[in-house]
Design brief:
The protein has a single domain, classed as Nucleic acid-binding proteins (OB fold (Dihydrolipoamide Acetyltransferase, E2P), Beta Barrel), CATH 2.40.50.140. Helices cover 14% and strands 48% of the residues. It has 2 helices and 5 strands, in the order E-E-E-H-E-E-H. It has a 5-stranded mixed barrel. It is globular, with a radius of gyration of 22 Å.
Length: 137
């Protein structure tokens, strides 16, 4: 059973293109989404089939990188399996049909914090700017 789900998180695994034995291409990557109630991580696998949504497949392949913050919408499925330690493990997968960039990657955010302010920008603290004389009130 699958349920339409929206998940927001950081890309934890760079998108990887694979092909099935009959030649269908799928791109998959992982995201780490936090729940609102607590800060526990939800590790979610995301996949996009090229035959289902070629445009989305191409955009993800070209622009989504590890560390990007994105929101995906798609059919959510959950399965369980027994891992090597003989523990039951939950596997969450979203077969995405839509996504959006939420922010930059973590490394881009660090670069923004360490970069100097752009030149030729108005100083917001300056009380006298170029428009003061033209205001009639």
């Amino acid at each position: 059973m699958s349920v339409k789900t929206t998940a927001t998180g950081w890309v934890t695994r760079a998108p990887e293109v694979r092909a099935t034995s009959n030649g269908q291409e799928v791109i998959s990557f992982g995201i780490n989404a936090e729940t609102r109630k607590n800060k526990d991580a939800n590790w979610i696998n995301v996949s996009v089939w090229k035959d289902s949504n070629e445009h989305l497949f191409k955009i993800i392949n070209e622009h989504v990188k590890k560390g990007s913050q994105i929101q995906v919408i798609g059919d959510h499925s959950v399965s369980t399996y027994i891992n090597k330690s003989n523990e039951t493990t939950i596997n969450q997968t979203i077969s995405a049909f839509s996504f959006d960039f939420i922010g930059g990657s973590k490394s881009e955010d660090k670069n923004k914090l360490n970069s100097p302010a752009p030149k030729n920008q108005p100083n917001p603290i300056n009380k006298h700017n170029e428009f003061d004389d033209d205001i009639p009130f």
